[in-house]
Amino acid sequence: MPYARLSSYYFFHFGALGALVPYWGPYLLERGFAPAAIGVLMAILMGTKIVAPNVWGVLADRAGERMPVVRVGALLAMLTMVPVFWADGFWTMALVMAAFSFFWNAPLPLVEAVTFNHLGARVSRYASVRVWGSIGFIVTVLLLGWWQEWAGSSVVPAAVLVLFIGVWLTCLVIPDRGHAEALQAHLSLRALLARREILAFLAACALMQASHGAYYAFYSIHLESHGYGDTAVGALWALGVGIEVLVFINMHRLLTRFGARRLLLASLLLAVVRWLLIGTFVELVAVQLIAQSLHAATFGAFHAAAIHLAHHYFPGSTQGRGQALYNSVSFGVGGAVGSLIAGSLWSGAGATATFAVASGLAGLGFIAALGVDRHGRW
Predict the structure, then answer these.
(1) Cα gap 125→65, rounded to integer Å
(2) Rounded CA separation 1/3 (Å)
(3) What is the pLDDT of residues 252-294, one digit of tens each?
(4) pLDDT tens for residues 22-57?
(5) How far apart are CA 255 and CA 253, in angstroms?
């Protein structure tokens, strides 16, 4: 089990997310982009997950090798990030963001599949590897918040590029691990997608991530417009992910005791509450601390449970495409739709209404999750 090498990949990949999600919106705002344009650009960042993981998943499953494909994606993400320093205007920025996010988003589901194959029967220990992604997110959020406050938002793309380089370097040392030969035969992705519980699972994931659209695109802007400084914004982001780390560390116990279905349902209900708290009580620091603490459920517990269900629902030769489908439907379709909705509402309807709509999307996700298999203890 190459624990350190896999953990390093997650550290840098989600470290890059820690630079993009909290700080890319304010960076674009400082560059002169309007809120509606920021919503579209952030939707591109999420939307490339619809196509990229599926293209990479098909290539890797057919070739029977994953890490060579991952290394190509990581290298291209690093190279296509460079032109962002000269991107000027909406369409140029949109093109650059589409390019680097396409190659950055593509390899993650393949690494997830490789990680599960290295874990073997110890799938509940996935969170002990994934937790390093949360640690990378925290470190990046805190350091970049301090650096940005001192040097300005122009440092954000430089930080992302450095982290992309880290992703590429770690890919070079991770050994590949294929799926078990015994599971390769007689598996059809189309047949799996005809199962109602799998469709319910994917719908719940998409709606959960759609509910996060306003949070990812505008949470930092929302805080800054109410007097929070860059350091405070970074600290609130870090708090959410810091508590998420505790969830990941104990995730194997939670999965064993409650099962993935109950964790999904509880996380969706807490998301309903979280978005209402953020949209309505932004001036109250204590309430924001509570709302950020709920990130442990709305992302940490939800994602860990969902990734286990995806591993359960898409075994053997469907692993790469199944993990890609989970990522593209939830973070891709859901994330893009959520960003577009938030961008269209933010200027006209205001923050409170935008986060109320996000809360409603989480509520719809709860209804969808009721259809997830009751009998699975994954």
Answers:
(1) 23
(2) 5
(3) 788 888 888 899 999 999 999 999 999 999 999 999 999 999 9
(4) 888 888 988 888 888 888 888 888 778 788 887 887
(5) 6
* C-alpha separations of 186 from 58, 104, 191 in Å: 17, 32, 10
Query: What is the C-alpha to C-alpha distance for residues 339 and 324, in angstroms, rounded to an integer?
Result: 20
Q: What is the pTM of this model?
A: 0.74
- CA neighbor of 272 nearest in space, from 211, 341, 333: 211
Exposure of 222 by Cβ count < 10 A (0-12 exposed, 13-18 middle, 19+ buried)? buried
Which CATH number applies to 3-176+190-369: 3.40.50.720, 2.130.10.10, 1.20.1250.20, 1.10.10.10? 1.20.1250.20
* Radius of gyration (C-alpha) of the chain in whole angstroms: 19
Q: What gap in Å lies between CA 320 and CA 109, rounded to an integer?
A: 7
Length of the chain: 378
The tokens for 29 are: 């705002």
d(CA 131, CA 298): 15
